[in-house]
Amino acid sequence: xxxxxxxxxxxxxxxxxxxxxxxxxxxxxxxxxxxxxxxxxxxxxxxxxxxxxxxxxxxxxxxxxxxxxxxxxxxxxxxxxxxxxxxxxxxxxxxxxxxxxxxxxxxxxxxxxxxxxxxxxxxxxxxxxxxxxxxxxxxxxxxxxxxxxxxxxxxxxxxxxxxxxxxxxxxxxxxxxxxxxxxxxxxxxxxxxxxxxxxxxxxxxxxxxxxxxxxxxxxxxxxxxxxxxxxxxxxxxxxxxxxxxxxxxxxxxxxxxxxxxxxxxxxxxxxxxxxxxxxxxxxxxxxxxxxxxxxxxxxxxxxxxxxxxxxxxxxxxxxxxxxxxxxxxxxxxxxxxxxxxxxxxxxxxxxxxxxxxxxxxxxxxxxxxxxxxxxxxxxxxxxxxxxxxxxxxxxxxxxx
Length: 400
Prior knowledge:
By secondary structure, the chain is mainly β. The chain has a single domain, classed as Porin, CATH 2.40.160. Helix content is about 10%, strand content about 50%. It contains five helices and 18 strands. It has helices at about 1-25, 30-35, 145, 245-255, 290-295; strands at about 45-55, 65-80, 85-95, 95-110, 115-120, 155-165, 170-175, 180, 210-220, 225-235, 235, 260-270, 275-285, 305-315, 330-345, 355-370, 370-380, 390-400. A 16-stranded antiparallel β-barrel has the order 1-2-3-4-5-6-7-9-10-12-13-14-15-16-17-18. A two-stranded parallel ribbon has the order 8-11.
C-alpha cells in the first residue's frame, strides 16, 4: 500500500513538474540564431527577410512612395561538436549594402553556462534580439528601437549566457567594445542619439570596455519579463598613443567621451488570442557638457542630452483564434514616446523637435508559420508639430 501511494505521489509530482516546464517553455522565445544553436546537424542554415512599401499621406500634397527590399538575411552555422558551435548572420540591406550582424563561437560548459565570443547582439529590450519580421507587429520596427536603443545594435566581445530551467531564467553577461563617440568628429548627437556611434564589428576600436547584460524570466504561462543593463563610455581615438602622464592630452581625450548608463525593462504576454507587449528604456549620459563644448562646430555647441527615454505599449488580438485554421490575423495598436533630450545640462536649451509621439495601428496576417503579410498606418508628431504626419506601410516577411 505504501509503495502504491509513493508511486502515485511521484507520478503526480512528475506531472506537475512537466506541466510547469511546459508552461514555462510557452513563454521562452528564440530568434534565428537561437534556432540554429538548437539544431543537431553539422551545417545549419536559417534566414529571414522583408520587403516594404512606405507611402507618406499628406493632405493636398502628392508624395512618391518608397519600395524597398529592406533586408535579406542568411544565417550559417556549424556544430563542431555537441558543445562547440559557430553562428554567423549575413545581411543584405536595400539590395546594395552588406553587413555581418553576428559571428560568434559558443562553447557549452554545462547545462547552465555557455561561453560566447565574437560579434554579438547587445541584449537590450525585445527588438534588438528578436527583430525577425514574423516576431513583431507593424511593418517597420518600433521607433524607440531606432533612436534610444539603436537596433540592430551589435558589437564585439565575450561573456557567458545560459538558461537556468529550474528557475525559468535566461541570462546574458558580456564585455564589449563601446560606441565610437569621437574619431575626429562627434558621433553622438541630440538628433540621432547613440545610433551613429555603432561600430558594428567593422574594424572597431576600444579605448575602454563596456558591460552589457540581460535577465529574462519566463516561469509564468504566457508571460516573459526582461531586465537589461548597459554601462560604460563611448570610445575616442584621442586616447591612442598619448602618454598617461600628459595631463593636457588626457584631459582633451576625456572631453571627447560620454558616459552611458542604460536600463531597459520589457514584457510580453499572451492569453488566448490576446497579445500584449511593452518596453521602457532610460539612458543617463554623463560628461555631456564637456563633450558638447569639445565637439561643437563653428562655435555652436553639440546638443547631446544628459538623459534619453523611450517606451511603448502595444495590444493585439488574433481574431482567427477560435477558427479551425493555422492562420492568424492580428489587428493591433501601439503607442510610443521617446525623447533624446529628456534632460539637458545647463548650457543647452531643450529641443522639442527631439520629443516625439507615435501611434501605429494595423494588421498582421500570418499565412503559415514563418510567413507574414503586414499593413499599418503610422502617425508621428514631435513637440514642435501642429499635427501628426501619416505614413501607410505595407510589407511581407519571412523567417525560416
